[in-house]
Amino acid sequence: MTARAASRPVGAVTRGTTNPNRLRRMDRWIAATHGAELRRAADPVAVDLGYGAAPWTAMELLTRLRTAAPRTRVVGVEIEPARVAAARPYERDGLTFRHGGFEVPTQGTPALIRAANVLRQYDEDQVPAVWQRLCARLAPAAPGSRGGLLVEGTCDEIGRRHVWVALGPEGPRTVTFATRLGSLDRPSDLAERLPKALIHRNVPGEPVHAFLRDFDRAWAAAAPYASYGARQRWIRAVRDLTADWPVTDGVTRWRQGEVTVRWEALAPRA
After folding, report:
1. Could you report the per-residue pLDDT of 140-185, keeping only the tens digit for each?
2. CA 149, 131, 27, 93: dihedral to nearest 10 degrees?
3. Whole-angstrom Cα distance, residue 75 to residue 55?
4. Could you give the CA distance from residue 171 to residue 182 in angstroms, rounded to a whole number?
5. How far apart are alpha carbons 122 and 78 in whole angstroms?
6. Which of 22, 64, 259 is nearest to 154 (CA)?
7. How far is CA 143 from the centre of its chain?
8. By the 8 A CB rule, do 94 and 62 touch?
């Protein structure tokens, strides 16, 4: 056992609620946007941090990432020892489970850390320190590589609506909004799934509030496209958003019910 693994885990026990296929939107986005980094990595280790009372999300992460990077290994990390013991029978080639927390008890530096629905129970002022700790564990940037990726966010119980922040070793990069379009009345419905760093900032005067306000207006203006389906309406609304907001992705991702915006545009005001 390494010294890192032997130390007391950092963090608090979560509720542990999880469902199969809950994190599919996040996983697909990671495979599409970070797959090349995983393929280039000498040891592409991905961490499912705080996977919960059942190991389904770690198992699914391995399957989805291996479609993009076949050498990927997944380590499920949980702070509750009983959950680790319950997950151990599901270990197989490329999938292991370990007891730990924000210290991320893996050898070497992970190419990916996914922390979904973990910081929901924390206070907003605790988030920067957690992000800093996790980013410090990522594989560093190198020539031809941006380094590892931390994906931290929140979704509903069955994964229809999800918002996450993507961070590199240098800190936060982007915010992604993802939804099953058939479940959406208006884009601001996603506000209830904002990650902890943003959920209390959805108030007048804050950038994320202005973004969701503008998104709702663009959605309303795109109503004529609804006759072609919710996907075409979403694409039209996002295209209009690009006039005023730094959207970083394109139609290929928009068609999935996603839109990604630079973190600086939505970051809370000091």
Report:
1. 999 989 999 999 999 999 999 999 999 999 999 999 999 999 989 9
2. 70
3. 11
4. 33
5. 16
6. 22
7. 25
8. yes
pTM over 0.85: yes
Residues 6+ apart with CB under 8 A from 230: 181, 182, 184
Phi, psi of 243 (to 5 degrees): -70, -25
Phi, psi at 242, each rounded to 5°: -65, -15
Backbone angles phi, psi at 227, to 5 degrees: -65, -20
97 Cβ contact partners less than 8 Å away, ≥ 6 residues apart: 51, 55, 58, 75, 76, 77, 78, 84, 87, 88, 90, 91
Tokens 């936060």 locate to 172
Alpha carbon distances (Å) from 134 to 7, 36, 162, 186: 16, 21, 21, 33
Provide DSSP, 129-187: HHHHHHHHHSPPPBTTB---EEEEEEE-TTSSEEEEEEEETTEEEEEEEEE-GGG-SSG
Residue 152 has, within 13 A of its CA and on its CB side, a CA count of 25
Amino acid at 141: A
Give the pairing of strands 112-116 and 95-99: unpaired
Compute the distance between CA of residue 163 and CA of residue 127 in angstroms, rounded to an integer. 16
Going by C-alpha positions, the residue among 162, 158, 169 that lies closest to residue 120 is 162
User: Residue 180's closest CA among 157, 195, 161?
Assistant: 161
Q: Look up residue 56 and give its amino acid.
A: W
Residues 29-63 pLDDT 10s: 999 999 999 999 999 999 999 999 999 999 999 99
Question: Which single residue is written with the structure tokens 């029978």?
Answer: 89
